[in-house]
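Please decode residue identities from the backbone states below.
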């Protein structure tokens, strides 16, 4: 089997923490190049821009885009135009229209486009989906609260237009609930708290309703100090389900029933290899659509200035 020659674009926190180890541990891929404005990786040809890589004599089959969302569409478009398969970090773009454009370009060129939602690969998510499939959901509570100063130091793009603010982690919760809940759900009302010196919300409270009227409450908070929460609770007609630790642990009626190792990024690369082999794509914007709805429908509240 010839490995897929992959270029990694954007060498920030997620590329170093997760993509590089996942690629190194997967025989189906080889790191053929790195595109970074600032640094390189030992053993891989380094380019300052994607255009320089594509114009070089280094051959790549696919690119994984690990930049912030704002520059992602232009990079993805460039890669697809050059005939490369594309993996998009979450969120897949800064707007829904961008992702739709990429979907069409990839389809027209018979290339693979993958919108990744790493939290869906957390150990408890698939078992949760199966457990919920034949139960009636009565209520859902999402509590996604983390300290931005601990988890995102120096990431100024998060606070700029298109950076999503607290929805950068919050979209992970939405990626899980869109995967596990058996019925579609819709935003009814929301409140976004945006620091007066920034462009993106630092806190959000969202009230959704599912197609049968069950309430789904989401609380996202970037200012949480002390214990951090990445939890989803689902009440059903036949017991209560809880996913904690970002989906890694599954509890049924307060008993821990499933806890797996962290295989989120290896899982994404397994799926990318499968899609390329099948000649297919996976383009799911449902978590980003809920975020767009929140920006469309929510009340705005001005929050105190945020100084990192
Ligand atoms: P980051 O640490 O700020 O890294 C992003 C990298 O992208 C930068 O280091 C830079 O790398 C490159 N880049 C290219 N154009 C840029 C621009 N206009 N502004 C800023 N950086 C630019 O961010 P990250 O945490 O890795 O997040 C990147 C993406 O992965 C985001 O969409 C995020 O939601 C997602 N993600 C992050 C995490 C996490 O835990 N941090 C988890 C899952 C997913 P070079 O200097 O090498 O060019």
């Amino acid at each position: 089997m010839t490995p897929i020659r992959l270029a990694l674009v954007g060498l920030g926190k997620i590329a170093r923490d997760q993509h590089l180890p996942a690629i190194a541990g997967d025989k189906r891929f080889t790191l053929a190049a790195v595109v970074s404005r600032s640094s390189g990786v030992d053993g891989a040809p380094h380019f300052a821009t994607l255009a320089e890589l594509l114009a070089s004599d280094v051959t790549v089959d696919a690119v994984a885009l690990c930049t912030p969302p704002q520059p992602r569409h232009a990079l993805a478009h460039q890669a697809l135009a050059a005939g490369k398969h594309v993996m998009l970090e979450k969120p897949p773009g800064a707007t829904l229209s961008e992702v739709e454009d990429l979907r069409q370009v990839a389809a027209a060129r018979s290339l693979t486009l993958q919108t990744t939602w790493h939290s869906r690969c957390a150990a408890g998510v698939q078992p949760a989906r199966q457990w919920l499939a034949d139960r009636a959901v009565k209520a859902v509570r999402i509590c996604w609260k983390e300290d931005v100063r601990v988890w995102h130091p120096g990431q100024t793009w998060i606070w700029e237009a298109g950076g999503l603010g607290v929805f950068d982690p919050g979209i992970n919760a939405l990626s899980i609930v869109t995967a596990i809940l058996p019925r579609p759900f819709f935003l009814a009302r929301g409140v976004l708290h945006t620091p007066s010196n920034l462009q993106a919300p630092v806190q959000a409270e969202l009230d959704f309703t599912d197609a049968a009227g069950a309430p789904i409450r989401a609380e996202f908070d970037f200012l949480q100090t002390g214990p951090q929460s990445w939890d989803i609770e689902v009440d059903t007609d036949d017991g209560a389900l809880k996913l904690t630790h970002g989906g890694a642990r599954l509890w049924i009626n307060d008993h821990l029933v499933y806890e797996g190792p962290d295989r989120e990024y290896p899982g994404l690369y397994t799926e990318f290899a499968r899609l390329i082999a099948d000649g297919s794509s996976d383009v799911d914007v449902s978590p980003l659509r809920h975020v767009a709805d929140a920006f469309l429908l929510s009340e705005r509240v001005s929050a105190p200035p945020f100084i990192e």
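Observation: The radius of gyration is 20 Å.
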